[in-house]
């Protein structure tokens, strides 16, 4: 967020200088109007004062649009069209614990994400089989639509808490940093705390494909492998499909045109891909290729201080929810290169009681094993 010496953003200055066209441009670009200046005032508060001093139909219209930005969109209730083939290629990790112990009664269930988010598989049952149980479900990508549909299925099973509480605005949509539509690495949830790694060549393949999808969406960017297929499905604009506009109120005299209200969901915001350290620090840059090559670890490989296949430091994000007293849901983007490797051995998970320590432990581990 760029501010001047008085703590004012571009929104503050547009109101102060009575630059209505600039304000409209900022609104169309979904600028943040919640930031405060050194006097703890937001641009919206300045705008309301401006209208009281000098009533104007045009400024009132700007305020109306600004108020629309405070409205959160509806959560997704249906998968994207034709997503079953894509979603079925990804399997969540599902661990069930009977009587509190995994090693005696647990089992790993192989289900495609498609049957869970569509409701085809009644995954969240009110009473699990085999007596008292605890369940851990982990998704292999940070996909907002997957999470929203998963929480909907949880609510539909007559379980608490309900989706509108778990994904309430201050814990979900208000944490979304959207960025420019053609910058895939500018979409993330605040904060962004987790450091991991990826092979440099694999990251370059991911970064280049993400940019191709942003610049040339649709069939013109063929996908190879399940990860590129996922990116193409969930990062491609879908105008006129109906699903892409889910959450839009009807365009009436009381509502701004499409694209000017926060309630319109942009399909490209759904999938949050992995980011390099410099993409995290400089998310407004279209390309960080030169900076990525200048990472300390990159120079160490180049200088021969490190041997093997070059890697890059990545900044990922863990999403975690504890639902009721028997379900944990986590989500984390896996490394693309993980499919090429043999499964690594981790500390055994013997009881659901170890989850509170196991999950953070895994999240803080930088695994350099090759």
TrEMBL record:
Residue windows of the ANK repeats: 6-38
Keyword Chloroplast (UniProt): no
Keyword S-adenosyl-L-methionine: no
UniProt-listed SUPFAM superfamilies: Ankyrin repeat
Alphabetical keyword list: ANK repeat
Residue ranges of the region described as Disordered: 235-266
UniProt protein name: Uncharacterized protein
Organism: Zopfia rhizophila CBS 207.26
């Amino acid at each position: 967020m760029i501010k001047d010496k008085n703590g004012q953003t571009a929104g503050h200055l547009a109101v102060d200088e009575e630059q209505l066209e600039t304000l409209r441009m900022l609104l169309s670009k979904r600028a943040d109007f919640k930031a405060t200046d050194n006097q703890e005032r937001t641009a919206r508060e300045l705008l309301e004062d401006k209208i009281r001093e000098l009533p104007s139909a045009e400024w009132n219209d700007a305020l109306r649009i600004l108020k629309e930005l405070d409205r959160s969109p509806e959560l997704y209730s249906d998968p994207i069209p034709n997503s079953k083939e894509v979603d079925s290629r990804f399997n969540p990790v599902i661990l069930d614990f009977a009587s509190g112990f995994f090693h005696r009664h647990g089992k790993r269930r192989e289900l495609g994400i498609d049957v869970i988010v569509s409701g085809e598989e009644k995954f969240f049952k009110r009473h699990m089989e085999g007596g008292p149980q605890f369940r851990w479900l982990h998704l292999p990508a940070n996909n907002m639509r997957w999470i929203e549909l998963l929480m909907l299925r949880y609510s539909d099973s007559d379980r608490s808490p309900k989706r509108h509480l778990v994904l309430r605005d201050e814990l979900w949509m208000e944490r979304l940093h959207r960025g420019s539509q053609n910058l895939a690495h500018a979409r993330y949830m605040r904060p962004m705390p987790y450091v991991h790694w990826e092979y440099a060549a694999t990251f370059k393949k991911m970064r280049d494909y993400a940019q191709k999808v942003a610049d040339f969406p649709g069939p013109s960017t063929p996908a190879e492998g399940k990860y590129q297929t996922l990116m193409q499905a969930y990062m491609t604009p879908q105008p006129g499909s109906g699903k892409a506009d889910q959450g839009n109120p009807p365009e009436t005299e009381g509502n701004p045109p499409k694209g000017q209200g926060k309630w319109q969901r942009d399909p490209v915001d759904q999938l949050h891909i992995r980011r390099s350290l410099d993409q995290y620090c400089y998310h407004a840059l279209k390309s960080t290729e030169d900076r990525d090559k200048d990472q300390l670890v990159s120079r160490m490989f180049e200088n021969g201080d490190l041997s093997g296949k070059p890697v890059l430091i990545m900044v990922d994000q863990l999403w975690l929810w504890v639902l009721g007293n028997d379900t944990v849901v986590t989500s984390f983007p896996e490394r693309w290169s993980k499919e090429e490797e043999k499964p690594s051995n981790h500390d055994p998970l013997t009881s659901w009681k170890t989850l509170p320590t196991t999950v953070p432990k895994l999240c803080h581990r930088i695994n350099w094993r090759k």
